[in-house]
Amino acid sequence: MKDELGRNINYLRISVTDRCNLRCRYCMPEEGIEKKEHMDILALEEIFEVVKVCADLGTNKIRITGGEPLVRKGLTGLIERIAALESIKDLALTTNGSLLRRYARDLKKAGLKRINISLDTMDDKKYEYLTRGGKLKDVLEGFREALEVGLEPIKINTVLTKGFNDDEIGDFIKLTQNYDIDVRFIELMPLGHAAGFASEHYISNLVVLERYKELEPVEATDKSSPAMYYRLPGAKGRVGLINPISHKFCDNCNRLRLTADGKLKPCLHSNLEIDVRGILRNLKADDKQTALREAVVEAVQAKPGHHTLNDLYNKPIDRDMYTIGG
Fold it and tell me: What one-character-per-residue DSSP string does 69-138 give?
C-alpha cells in the first residue's frame, strides 16, 4: 500500500491491551488506568480480522504491543494464527520483560520470530522506583529465557531520561560487546498525561555519540527502521538511536497502529483515528470486509508528513502511550 507521499505502508503495530502490570512514571498514572468494559476492547478474533485485511492489502510486518501484551489472555493463540498467514514475513512483540520467562517458550512455539524488551535501567532500586514496584530480576530472567529459546534478534529499548538513566548509557552499550543484540536509546516523547514529565526530563540522543566517540556508524539492514545504528569496535551487537524529537524519521515511516479499543491510527503523533470496532460489530460479513478494506486504505492515505508532527514544545496528543501501543 502506498500513501500520498509514496511511502510503502507494510507494517501494522497492534495494541492487544492498554493494561500493564507495571506503572512506569513516564507512561502510566500511579493509580493505574480506568478499567474498560469487555465490549470496549477488541476481541482477539476481531484483531485477527483486521490483520487478514491488512495482509491482503500488502502488510507483511506485524508487531504485538500493549500496555503489556503478555497480560492478555489467549495471546499465544492470536500469534499462532497470524504466524500461519503466508504473507506475514515478520512477527514480533514488545514487552516489559517481567513475564517473559513464563511465556517465551510458548511464544516461540506459536510462531513469534523476535522480541523487543523495554528496559530503562539496570539498577535494582531505580527500576523499582521507575516502575513503581517492578523487579529487575524478572526482566533479566526473561531476557535470558528469550535468548535460550531463540527469540532473536533481541532488541532492548531504553527511553533516555535526563537525571535518571543518562549515567547508565555506558552500561547499556557494554551489553552489545558480549551479546548479539541491539540496544536502542529512544528519546522521551511528550504524549498524553506524561507530557509534562517528558518536557522536564528530555535529553537528546546526541549525548550518546558525544560521550562515546568510539561508536562507529553501521548501515541499517532495514531501511524503514527509525533507528540509526552504531557499533563498538569488535562488539557482537549494535547500538541504535531513535530520535523522534531531535531528528524526525517521517520520510521512511511505513506503519499503521491498531489500538486495543479498535481505532486505526495513521500517525503516532496525530489525534486522527479511524474506527474499525463499529465496522467489525455492526456489519454483515461481506459488507464488513469491504468496509474494513476502505478503512485501512483511508488510514494509509491519511498519513501525514513532517509538518503535522508534534515536538517537545507543541501541544501533545490526547492519548497516553499505553492506550496506543509502543
Answer: GGGSTTHHHHHHHHHT-TT--EEEEEE-STTHHHHHHHHHHHT--EEEEE---S-HHHHHHHHTS--HHH
HEC letters along 297-324: HHHHHCCCCHHHCCCCCCCCCCCCHHHC
Q: Convert the pLDDT of each residue in 205-260 to its tens digit.
A: 999 999 999 999 998 777 778 899 999 999 999 999 998 765 567 888 999 999 99
The per-residue pLDDT for 315 is: 55
29 backbone φψ class: left, alpha, beta (φ>0; ψ -120 to 50): beta
The more confidently predicted of residues 246 and 91 is 91
Return contacts of 294-300, CB within 8 angstroms, 24+ apart.
Answer: 295/264, 296/1, 296/50, 296/53, 296/54, 296/57, 296/256, 296/264, 297/1, 297/57, 298/274, 299/256, 299/264, 299/265, 299/266, 299/274, 300/1, 300/2, 300/3, 300/9, 300/256, 300/266
CB atoms within 10 A of CB 221: 9
pLDDT confidence tier of residue 311, bands split at 50, 70 and 90? very low
Give the tens place of pLDDT for each residue, 178-214.
999 999 999 887 655 555 665 677 888 999 999 999 9
Read off the pLDDT of each residue in 286-300 and give the average, rounded to a whole number: 97
**R_g of the chain, CA atoms, integer Å:** 19
Cell of 301: 492515505
Q: Classify domain 11-323 at the CATH class level.
A: alpha beta
Question: Cell 491519511 maps to which residue?
Answer: 302
Strands 263-265 vs 255-258: parallel, antiparallel or unpaired: antiparallel
> Taking the domains of the chain in order of start, what are their residue ranges?
11-323
